[in-house]
Write a structure and sequence with these properties.
The complex is a heterodimer. Chain A is an all-alpha fold. Chain A contains 11 helices and no strands. In chain B, helix 3 packs across helix 7 and helix 3 crosses helix 9. Chain B is 75% helix and 0% strand. The radius of gyration of chain B is 23 Å and the shape is globular. The chains are: A mainly alpha, B mainly alpha. Chains A and B meet through helix 1, helix 3, helix 4, helix 5 and helix 6 of A and helix 1, helix 3, helix 4, helix 5 and helix 7 of B. Chain B: Pfam families: BPD_transp_1.
Chain lengths: 267, 274
Amino acid sequence: MSKRLSNAFLILVFIVLYAPIVFLIVYSFSAGDTMTAFHGFTWQHYRDLFSDSRMLAIVANTLLVALLSALIATLVGTLGSLGINRTTNHVTKESLLALNNVLMVSPDVIIGASFLIFFTMLKIPLGFVSVLLSHIAFEIPIVVLMVLPRLREMSSSMLDAAQDLGATTKQLLSQVIIPFISPGIFAGFFMALTYSLDDFAVTFFVTGNGFSTMSVEIYSRARQGINLEINALSGVMFLFSLLLVAGYYWIEQASSRRKQRKRRATS
Amino acid sequence: MMTLTKRKTWFYFIPYGLWLALFVIAPLALIFYQSFFSLDHHFTFSNYTTYFQSLTYLKMTLNSVWYALLITVFTGLISYPTAYFLHGLKHRQFWLLLVILPTWINILLKAYAFIGIFSQAGLANQFLSFIGIGPQQILFTNASFIFVATYIQIPFMILPIYNALDDLSPAFINASQDLGASGWQTFRRVIFPLTLPGVKAGVQAVFIPSLSLFMLTRLIGGNKVITLGTAIEEHFLTTMNWGMGSTIGVVLIVAMVIVMLLTGDQKPKGGTPR
């Protein structure tokens, strides 16, 4: 009885979670102009979307910013975690970690507003560069949080062994450390990518007039009312997120399989 | 040898150090600094005095906190049972992934979906007509704002609670049952207290963003609810009064620190059950 009740509750929660998404995608195939009654199947909105050169340019911008910022953030974040992990002083380490998490917990508007002041003071023009820099900035802490646990798992005896065998610092990094923490680096890269694709508020503050990302464009179009082209866009985005989730899940699985294998080997 | 490697690794730390200085410390310092400047760029305390003497600002702040509180409570009421039941399922990893999946959909697309669902002739009103209540004005009301905000926040609350449940050793539950506690007693005295850190993490993840959700107040709330975030956005991008915007930003930061202190993981001094 209570089992049935709990299942009913879960089903209800899942329906509520997915209803808006399904709703959006269903109407992306409706022949009408509104999201009120289904008017028969059509690919028209997808055709509109793929011939809307402004939207396509914005999608390309968004992907470019996401990939580029995630790459740079992963690089800086990984180096940063190596540094944090090296720190032996407890107080320094804790304060570094606390500073690292400031951007993780700050509300988006604070990040956006403070970056806007920052860019204006440095006279950095608002546009592609300011958006890219902001995205890199708010992605770095999540990369650190993904890489650091892997570094902690690494045993120091392995490093000692490598050094005793004559490995240089460079070799140590490229042959021992990086391969070991690579699942963390990949996870960090994926999280950074999703943070970038998902961001609206920070970009909205620092984007200026000429440059736009998908979130900002959806916001300005949604303020004008219903436009089924946005539904088509969400259909494409949903497919894209499914692929990303599958990729992320696959990496997670691969790393946990590796862990299990190692556990079996040592026991 | 050790010092040599150490010196060499400091070199790798430079980009990260630069990031800390330029994008963490400097912007925070700048927002404090900016909050002491008036519209015509003169140093002044007037932003703060205006803020704390103006009924409008104070009311807005209280309102924002109140709405964030409501959103957090509703999110918690839905998320705790969801996480709890999910944890009892067979393929729970898969179901958990299904909870996370909606968070990968752009938040604006979800808000946009609700514009359609809540519109005059939308799905929600069709349902209300169907059960005989008749169409209502749903979009641009406070209730719709709370509903959509709760909808967006639910996964962020489910995750930490689920993780806390996952960390909970089943031995405690078995022990409690063996000692004759009823299901409800086990939950109230054992499971809930031990998963409280997860709830606190969830509150942190939901309450602070709820203070600053400005796109929802515009798209769904129809500007009826003004949150701290909406006020900051308005001062920065519409009225261009950065000083006042920064002052509200400082208030938001203070609110954030208070929430963090209240929900921070006070490390228990005694032996923690592990």
